[in-house]
Write a structure and sequence with these properties.
With 398 residues, the protein is α/β, with parallel strands linked by helices. It is elongated. The strands form four sheets. Strands 5-2-1-6-7-8 form a six-stranded parallel sheet. A three-stranded antiparallel sheet has the order 9-10-11, with helices on one face. The chain is built from 18 helices and 13 strands. The chain folds into two domains: 268 residues, Rossmann fold (3-Layer(aba) Sandwich), CATH 3.40.50.10540; 78 residues, formyl-coa transferase, domain 3 (2-Layer Sandwich), CATH 3.30.1540. The protein starts with 17 loop residues before the first strand and ends in a 7-residue tail after the last helix. Helices cover 41% and strands 14% of the residues.
Length: 398
């Protein structure tokens, strides 16, 4: 079974916006999927071999849910970008589109003839967003980079190491924070550029760097690097329970007093070491030790229930599978079922909601599934013209 993308417009604040998505892997696809979730028509441009993530696990019957989570709700146009015919198609699409997103290494799009300087000649109102490791300018712009490299280069890994006890090497990386963060920043920047275009009629280029994104994540650390503190920063640590670990965050004075009441240790509020915020910072490790003496006597669920009842920020440490079963996510509508050629699976929706309906697109397009409808419906090409492009190897045979 070949699953086609839905060609019907979807509701959302970005309905009527057309996006040409040249991205692959994570950062760019995440950015473009957020726009698709909000109703934009997103046309994913893939080479004839497809996005590399299409072959990455988890796989069912050769279909990647990893790919699907990043690209559901998009159309797929599989095309050999190195051909003259492909250039003509992209230039024609540019004229009737609003946004281009790409995350190649700087210089690649220019070599293909699809850089902002070239495409903006075809559409001066175009909003063109480039996502890269180190940005589009500067002596290090063309350095190869993926999220784990940027985690190290930005100081993120080193900063995180300083918060660990008894650890002398940076943590291994499996969660690509820089990719998702930069994709979200790019999404926001594109909306600002579209608003600017609405007001002025002018398009523009947007330059988003993974490196800059990670530095923006390190708010305290960037300032502490300039003005070192004389004492370690308070760190919220996992505390042992009878069956696992919990984390409790008595940040405000009210939170602290509520926690002392929940623990039935009101004497803590009169203890000179803990009575004020500044005193607690000074004696932070001692406070954490007192809290853990209490948590060790209770189960994680019991601790969470007691703290929740008293308004104290607290959580058990759970798996992603456990988190996805949380009834709060169901009640809020935070997850959606989507479908590819192998069947259905769940993806998170965008982390914001509107009065108009928004959700992940229900279909993951097979490679090149939308070649015909994109070229015929949007560009007005005839079946004979499309067949000829397939025979010439410009399009995938779908």
């Amino acid at each position: 079974m070949t699953v086609q993308s839905s060609t019907a417009p979807r509701p959302g604040p970005l309905q009527g916006i057309r996006v040409i998505d040249f991205t692959a892997m994570l950062a760019g696809p995440h950015c473009a999927r957020l726009m698709a979730d909000l109703g934009a028509e997103v046309i994913k441009i893939e080479g004839l071999e497809g996005d590399l993530i299409r072959s990455r696990p988890p796989l069912r019957d050769g279909n990647s849910t990893y790919f699907g989570a990043l690209n559901c709700g998009k159309k797929s146009l599989a095309i050999n970008l190195k051909t003259k015919a492909a250039k003509d198609i992209i230039y024609r699409l540019t004229k009737v589109s609003d946004v281009v997103v790409e995350n190649f290494r700087p210089g690649v799009m220019a070599r293909l003839g699809f850089d902002y300087a070239t495409l903006s000649k075809h559409n001066p109102k175009l909003v063109y967003c480039s996502i890269s490791g180190y940005g589009q300018t500067g002596s290090g712009a063309t350095r190869a980079a993926y999220a784990p490299i940027i985690h190290a280069a930005s100081g993120f890994d080193a900063a995180n190491l300083t918060y660990q006890t008894g650890q002398d090497t940076p943590a291994s990386t499996g969660i690509f924070t820089a990719d998702i963060l930069s994709g979200a920043y790019a999404f926001g920047a594109i909306q600002a550029a579209l608003l600017h275009r609405e007001r002025t009629g002018e398009g523009q280029a947007v330059d988003v760097a993974l490196m800059d994104s990670m530095l923006n994540l390190l708010v305290f650390e960037c300032q502490e690097a300039q003005f070192p503190s004389q004492r370690p920063r308070p760190v919220y640590v996992p505390m042992k329970s009878t069956d696992g670990h919990v984390i409790i965050a008595p940040i405000s004075q009210k939170n602290f007093e509520q926690m002392a009441e929940a623990m039935q240790q009101l004497e803590l509020t009169a203890d000179a070491r803990f009575a004020t915020g500044s005193a607690r910072v000074e004696h932070w490790n001692e406070l954490m030790a007192v809290m853990e003496q209490w948590t060790r006597r209770h189960s994680s669920a019991e601790i969470e229930s007691i703290m929740d009842a008293n308004g104290v920020p607290c959580s058990r440490f759970v798996t992603v599978a456990d988190a996805m079963r949380d009834t709060q996510l169901t009640e809020r509508g935070s997850l959606s079922w989507v479908k590819d050629a192998a069947g259905e699976f769940i993806v998170p929706n965008a982390p914001f909601q509107f009065t108009v309906p928004t959700a992940a697109g229900p279909i993951v397009a097979a490679l090149g599934a939308d070649n015909t409808n994109v070229l015929s419906d949007i560009l007005g090409m005839s079946p004979l013209e499309i067949d000829a492009l397939q025979e010439q190897g410009v399009l995938s045979n779908r």
